[in-house]
Every structure is written in structure tokens, then in C-alpha cells.
């Protein structure tokens, strides 16, 4: 009998870099076991990751959505996203990885469009095909990154920061995202509040489940938090909270062998039956029905 999967592993940057950096760029083959040991195993990163598949094909599952990734494709993985790469052939390409402190992607006033468009979205869709002309631009930026990391000349970290920002801008253009940021102070304030709210959900969703809880932490009224959420995302603050809890439940149902009862306790529910009703109310499936319907298909090598 196969060993019961109860956890989704968390991979940290040093496991790839054999050090403790805030930024790395490397060919996939040069990553060695740090990369290939995680092929076929659902896991999370505690850092931002950009993969560029230059040659070969693979299946990429982000949370519960599977994408067929062909050659010359970029894809983006945010910290905490459960992902699984499956491949039956040799793949070549690059991985760019960095800690939040390196780029501060959570700083709404700096990279709003890039932030929301590439790493953070409700339905993961940042799988971007690159054409020949675009490939040359990305290749140039990657080679410059590698040169800066190798030479480590004065202010090389500033150079890497600029090159990474340029890489993300190029990717946003290919994806068709608007990178510009609204100059109105009011809009920037609301954006800042909303981003803080989203970050708080990531930190607190196991314990806090109501709009009032988060509004209190943000020192605003629940009705205002809902208005800002509706204005900037089209859905209420309560929906964001529920969606995050449901997403984590789906991650566990899809990637582990935990029972619904075990998942309920992990997500901060005192009553597993209430959790099951909650899950079915917002997904139209019971946890067991979701698990059966989304059971990963076995792909032969």
C-alpha cells in the first residue's frame, strides 16, 4: 500500500541554490537534483519562480488546473501555490527565482500591473507562449542576469533588480497586461488597502473567516472594505476570504490523502460537518465528490 500523503512539501530557495541568496537564475539542467527531485511531486515554493521552457514538453498542474506546456513557454509560480511538473522527456530552459524582499512585488505602488497580472490571479493563467522575436529579448535579459551574478561587480544587485523588472515588463506586454499605475492618490490608497487585505488573508485565513475580522486589522469599517474590494476586483471581501479557504481545501483534496475531517481541522474549522456544508455551498460538490472528480490522471512516461 502506498504511503499516505498528508502534507504538501514546501521548498525553499537554498534547496535550489545551495546557499541563501535572494535571487538566482540558472539553466534547468544546472539545477541538478534540487530541481529534478521535485518532478512529479506536488509542492510549494516559499519564493517567486519563473520557468522558461526552451525545449521539450511537460504537464504543469497549478493547484487543480493542468496546462500542457510546450517549448518556448514562460510560466509563473507565486509563493504558496501548489504545483506539480510532470515530464516524460528531457526539458531544457531556465529558472529565475527570487525572494519577495528582492523585488517587493507586494509593494502596490511599484509593480501593480506586473504583480496582479503574472503572479497573482484568481484563475492561474500565466502560461505565456513566446515567439522568435520575443525570445531574443528574453534571452538577452537572462544572459545579462547570469553575467551580473557571475561577475558581481559594484552595484550588481541593483542591476539584477532592474533586469528582473524589465523581464517582468516584457512578459506583461506579451500577456497583454497593462503595466501602468493610476496616478490618482485615492485610487492608490484603495489599492494599498486592498493589497494589505489580500496579504492578511494569506497570513490569517486559517483563523479569521469574517470581513469584520480583517476590517478591524485594517482599521476601517467592513462596508468600506467590501466597497474597495468590489471596486478593484469585482467581488466582495467575503468572497475573497471564502475563495482562499476553498482553494486551500481543494489543494489538500487534490494533492494529499487527507480526509475531509482532517482538512477541516487544518483549516481552522471546529466542526467538520460545517466545513463539508460550507465547501458544498460554494462549489456545488461535497469534498469527496470534488476529490473523485478531480483525481489526477496518471500519465505514462
Automatic annotation (TrEMBL):
SUPFAM superfamilies: Homeodomain-like (SSF46689), Regulatory protein AraC (SSF51215). The keyword Transmembrane helix does not apply. This is AraC family transcriptional regulator. It comes from Chitinophaga nivalis. Coiled coil: none annotated. Residues 195-293 form the HTH araC/xylS-type domain. Keywords: DNA-binding, Transcription, Transcription regulation.
